[in-house]
Give the backbone structure.
Amino acid sequence: MSQVYNWQLGREMNYPYEGQYPESQFAFVFNINRCIACQSCTMACKSTWTFSKGQEHMWWANVETKPYGGYPQFWDAKILELLNRANPDKQFWSGPAGENPKSPYGQFAGKTIFEAPLLLQPASSRVLGYLPTDEEWNSPNIYEDNAVGPKGTRYKFHATGEQLPVHNTWFFYLARICNHCTYPACLAACPRQAIYKRPEDGIVLLDQSQCRGYRKCVEACPYKKSMYRGNTRVSEKCIACYPRVEGTDPESNGEPLETRCMAACIGQIRMQSLVKLNPDGTWAEDRQHPLYYMVHVAKVALPLYPQFGTSPNGYYIPPRWVPRDYLRQMFGPGVDRAIERYENPDRELLAVLQLFRRSNRIIFRYEIEEGPLAYEGPYRGKTIRIYNDTVIAFGKNGKEIFRTKVEEPLHVRPNKHQNSI
């Protein structure tokens, strides 16, 4: 085992290989507050990559309903249980979330999926994991829209209605793809070294000519985003639509495009880009990059289950109405600060949030042109000011992609329109 630095954990951790980091890393932010589970992302991916025989169970992109849903079923509950069984009642964070970019969420005092096997006698494998049963792969939208009530009671709703900050009866949609982790568990577990990270963008790919279908990647990935194809006897996984990302897709005209699932998002919950890395794998300061701003400046976007230790490059703006303990387990100690910031956005955050899904081209930089005061008044006991600023997005080549305003334009339909009778 080597020692690598994991900034999401705020400490060094064990990993089977020495740290090797690309100059730029594929990363994304999903705003769960906006997700409506329309499944447009799911079907965009399905119709592009996993429509063939033997891929019927493969959903590289999926949207599941929490707390009961999951694909495969119970994927997160099972790996959390395995970690707690290996390291009983010691899976916790020490220290509060802070401003240090090398430990923004404090320090994780528990054991990761790479460290927990060393506590087991004999050591079970390189990575702590499990193989889902065939039944667990059956239903990609199991328990969709099922709400949870007081003390975990299902199906009990409240006639009095719900109010923020936390709803008594709640559920939320969690959109997921492969996180293209900095320390991929699938890569660590593969005995054939068939899995690798692309040096140009950190996208995790699987060389099918080297794969022998041992399913170690399926067992090891805590997010269960590596999947076995029975008729070819090899594994497959999300490839982050890399022809689009690198600008070689025929549709791209040489410009980097967002993935199919991102571009199809009706709810405007997604933003994807490439972020610059330091030699130790931490994010290089890039103040005007929208992902850097949301993750390291505004701190509204958090990694999914950072305690697993894979350093996922998928980040989520947590839902405002969900009990905080549940969200802290899922996104770490930064939840309270992230929700507070999202509920009370400052002028810059409000502008950056307008960048989501305004184009299918990848945004590498933004600028804000100040506009007039659009609203001033009370909001949840506070006086707020909203300015109609213009936010401008720039591509990889530095050219402007688009510009949009904080206030969306209002269009009044005339009395007689095209569909009038």
Residues 75-86 form the longest helix (12 residues). DSSP finds ten helices and 19 strands in the chain. The two ends are 74 Å apart (CA to CA).
